[in-house]
Predict the 3D structure of the following.
Amino acid sequence: MSTLLITGGAGFIGSHVVRLFVTKYPAYKIVNLDALTYAGNLENLKDIEQAPNYFFEKGDITDEGGMQQLFDRYDFDGVIHLAAESHVDRSIADPLQFVKTNVLGTANLLNVARKSWAGRFEGKRFYHVSTDEVYGSLGEQGMFTETTPYDPRSPYSASKAASDHFVMAYYHTYHLPVVMSNCSNNYGSHHFPEKLIPLMINNILNKKPLPVYGKGENVRDWLWVEDHARAIDLIYHEGATGDKYNVGGFNEWKNIDLVHLLCTIMDRKLGRAAGESAQLITYVTDRPGHDLRYAIDATKLNRELGWKPSLQFEEGLEKTVDWYLNNTDWVEHVTSGDYQHYYKEQYEHR
Ligand code: NAD
């Protein structure tokens, strides 16, 4: 019996990780700790919430006393830490919230784990989930490897970089048994509709303008979220302590090409004329400091642990579009209230 804390399990990636662990490891006790911010939604886990090995705890990773009580209550064997503020545009509007959650929250969890596990690190594991954005921006050539120096350029990536440094500092200073991964952009079901792919699907469906930053030339690597969850499972169980792994899809797309592909898929699924949805594309003022290109080299994870992406991008996009078309209620629920206000500020006042 292993007791595992997963933070941020009500969010996009976290919910896929919780679902995978709860179903694949019935002998594990899985505790999902989430503050349920605008990005956290327990509806994401409706299908597994009755499982006998699943427990939900509402709490804030920055709360020192609360996290200590949680560790005292459950005596965790391991932590998979995903809770974070995750949206770059929000980090530009409110950077200090990102410092608080991503830097202070991570440092707090590390510290509580260090104190709670003092003298018995054997068999314990603290896994920190991070992003490729910590490496900065690439030109036309090259890829990020695990040894690429950090060069974060947005408040989001700076806060994630700082949290990564704290994780490695706890390994070197206290020998806390950590492991870490840096992943490219994920896509799939339950993705909050402020992010590019679900935002476009939602807007195409509702015939709203499709806001594309600058000329849409920015390049991102995209990975099916369930492939990321599989990588997390593998790294949690088999990754080397004190090591880090890049995770990516070997799947680079210019934003504008991706939006056109989504328009084509949606035109077909909605019975619209070819090219109809693409007319909704609207170029908006570029994001300040917008990184041109991210490309991640996941060779080490393949070589050492045998992981590779399972799904072709076009197939994954079809599945994603189908999920959003079949779950319009979910979109309605998560986009009410606060999100409406944020959306207006972000896109309609430009
Ligand atoms: P998300 O925004 O969908 O979910 C974040 C979750 O964390 C939410 O459920 C939210 O309620 C929770 N949370 C926020 N602040 C909290 C706090 N103070 N205490 C407890 N819970 C809190 O994010 P995501 O896209 O699922 O990303 C999860 C992790 O993976 C993040 O650490 C992110 O940096 C990393 N990551 C994301 C991507 C991506 O493409 N989305 C890629 C690489 C890495």
